[in-house]
Write a sequence for this structure.
């Protein structure tokens, strides 16, 4: 018997004697929390991420000014990032795909996001336009993410409902961190050590 | 558990290990500091959610649904993942899983792989098995790196190096890392920075990565890895080949179920609203991440656990370690004393069921049955009840014991009123055995303080009291 068949047989033998009563899947937890932009910003600050909110019209200049302020010059820019966000900077476009070493040498990456969650201060990337493949938002040490205020939902259940599970998803809540040494939270290990979120609108 | 490296279950047995551990003042201090910090953090985060109990109920129900129809969900998962370009393999036990993974790595021609922290790969002793085939597997999680460099064993499910403090970690890095700066301080920031530099080149050059998974979605064939450092994302994204070893109980029916578990897991494990990174991938995504994706579905005793109607709830476990962090026994002995991959209360119920109670007979007794573990479990595993059930199994499996004979005798005495009254008059003799006595009595008294028996029994006192009272009234 193949391993597959044997395991499935063992499973069936194990569960056959007592057909389990249908578990109560009534989902009585909250699916909305009403958290908004203020909570989102507070959560990001709690994670030691920077967050600013600007009117839609000032988005481009704010992104440029923020990157310059952090002395970031070589900027990884996934397909769909407008040129207006990179004026006077050196964009690194991913066509053809950038080598990992080049990504490692970049100063920053700028992306958009698929959805953001206020309650947990989370941004979710799904690899579509403006976000690019997963390595782009991972290898550079500084990640600037642009979130439009209408992309922010209150709770995790609201975000899950908006996401496509078949896309590669990355849930990001603050900069890379560890608590492995004496449970002390240290921001910055392998992923971007600096996360900055610009909220437009 | 058949892999050579993993047969250390209950050998030496828990009481012997525990005795040694409680005498290690440094170890106890390290674990007490870390667990009290994380307990506090978890409590704050859980209190914040008014619907925590409803989330726990839903989490338990979803897992029970999976277990009740595990065959169906496994087939559904296999089909969905295969359709999206993943290769699904099945492993009856540790040896088979190690063989599959070793062959997959060998087929790429690589001699080095990078690894995401995973309890399943720990359980099967994968790193050691790969080493025997000449393949070096590098742990990339900071705590796992500390354990690997220190030639040590993990002692906690979420924070494997919880038993080491910053000074000890600094020493390990200086001694073993090879490229640690000579002036390395014991500041956690400096230690994390050293780990970053040490692993950076490995991440950028690795061709093969090995991971586990926190959740597997039957509906879509997706896997999820939860982590904090970004080492997981590196492993899941940069190499050409990704091999994930996944216990068959890791399934969730639908993608929507993550809305429950991504609330339960981070708050229970690290006491955060959300851990920094969760990666979800489904088979192969052209142009993004590994183009060769393998999933090894692992039984290794899980179907034994499933067979037991009381014990099977242990398969709901999402490896958050909240039960370790609150356990008064774990806090004093640390994780190594349990002598198995899964320490703490969940280990005490899971290990004996995975390997058979006869191979881990002392573990169900490694608990005071205080019930705190049940209270904090995000999927409501009634650990005390399972422990009591397993104790029963252990006793049943053993030869008649002196303890059994003693209780049979006690039963006979207690059945007759006069016999009992007479026996009670002998109780003051117990003073002789309070601090020792000959074997087998000493086996009992060595670990227990008996209260000093009163000079007069309650019954005698009652009788004398009623006599006096009657006298008063007259």
């Amino acid at each position: 018997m193949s391993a597959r068949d044997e395991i499935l047989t063992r499973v069936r033998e194990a569960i056959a004697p007592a057909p389990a009563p249908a578990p109560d899947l009534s989902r009585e937890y909250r699916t909305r929390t009403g958290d908004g932009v203020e909570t989102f910003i507070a959560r990001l600050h709690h994670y030691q991420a920077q967050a600013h909110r600007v009117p839609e019209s000032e988005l481009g200049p704010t992104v440029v000014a923020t990157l310059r302020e952090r002395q970031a010059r070589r900027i990884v820019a996934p397909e769909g990032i407008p040129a207006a966000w990179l004026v006077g900077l050196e964009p690194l476009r991913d066509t053809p795909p950038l080598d990992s070493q080049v990504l490692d040498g970049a100063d920053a990456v700028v992306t958009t996001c698929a959805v953001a969650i206020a309650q947990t201060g989370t941004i979710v990337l799904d690899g579509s336009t403006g976000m690019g493949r997963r390595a782009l938002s991972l290898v550079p040490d500084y990640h600037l993410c642009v979130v439009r205020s209408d992309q922010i939902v209150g709770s995790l259940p609201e975000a899950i409902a908006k996401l496509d599970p078949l896309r590669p998803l990355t849930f990001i809540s603050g900069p890379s961190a560890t608590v492995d040494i004496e449970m002390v939270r240290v921001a910055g290990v392998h992923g971007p050590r600096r996360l900055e979120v610009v909220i437009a609108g | 558990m058949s892999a050579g490296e993993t047969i250390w279950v209950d050998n030496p047995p828990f009481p012997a290990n525990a005795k040694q551990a409680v005498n290690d003042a440094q170890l106890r201090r390290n674990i007490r500091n870390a667990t009290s910090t994380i307990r506090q953090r978890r409590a704050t985060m859980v209190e914040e959610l008014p619907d925590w109990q409803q989330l726990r109920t839903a989490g338990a129900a979803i897992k029970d649904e999976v277990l009740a129809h595990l065959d169906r969900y496994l087939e559904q998962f296999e089909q969905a993942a295969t359709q999206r370009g993943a290769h699904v393999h099945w492993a009856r036990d540790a040896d088979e899983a190690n063989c599959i993974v070793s062959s997959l790595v060998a087929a790429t021609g690589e001699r080095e792989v990078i690894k995401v922290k995973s309890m399943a790969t720990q359980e099967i002793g994968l790193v050691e098995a790969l080493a025997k085939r000449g393949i070096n597997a590098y742990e990339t999680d900071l705590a796992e790196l500390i354990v690997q460099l220190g030639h040590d064993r993990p002692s906690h499910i979420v924070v494997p190096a919880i038993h080491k403090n910053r000074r000890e970690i600094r020493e390990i890095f200086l001694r073993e890392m090879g490229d640690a700066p000579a002036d390395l301080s014991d500041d956690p920031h400096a230690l994390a920075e050293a780990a970053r530099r040490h692993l950076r080149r490995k991440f950028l050059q690795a061709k093969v990565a090995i991971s586990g998974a926190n959740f597997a979605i039957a509906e879509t064939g997706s896997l999820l890895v939860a982590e904090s450092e970004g080492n997981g994302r590196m492993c899941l994204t940069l190499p050409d080949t990704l091999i994930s070893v996944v216990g068959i109980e890791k399934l969730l029916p639908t993608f929507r179920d993550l809305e429950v578990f991504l609330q339960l897991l981070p708050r229970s494990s690290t006491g955060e609203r959300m851990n920094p990174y969760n990666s979800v991938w489904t088979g192969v995504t052209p142009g993004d991440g590994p183009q060769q994706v393998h999933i090894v579905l692992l039984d290794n005793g899980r179907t034994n656990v499933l067979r037991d109607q009381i014990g099977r709830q242990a398969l709901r476990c999402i490896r958050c370690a909240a039960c370790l962090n609150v356990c008064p026994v774990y806090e004093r002995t640390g994780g190594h004393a349990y002598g198995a991959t899964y320490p703490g209360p969940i280990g005490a119920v899971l290990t004996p069921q995975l390997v058979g109670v006869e191979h881990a007979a002392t573990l169900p007794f490694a608990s005071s049955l205080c019930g705190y573990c049940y209270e904090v479990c995000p999927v409501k595993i009634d650990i005390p009840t399972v422990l009591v059930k397993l104790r029963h199994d252990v006793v049943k499996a053993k030869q008649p014991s002196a303890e059994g004979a003693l209780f049979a005798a006690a039963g006979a005495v207690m059945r007759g009123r006069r016999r009992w009254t007479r026996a009670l008059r002998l109780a003051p003799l117990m003073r002789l055995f309070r601090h020792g006595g000959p074997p087998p009595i000493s086996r009992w008294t060595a670990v227990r303080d008996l209260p000093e028996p009163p000079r007069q029994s309650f019954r005698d006192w009652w009788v004398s009291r009623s006599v006096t009272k009657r006298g008063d009234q007259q």
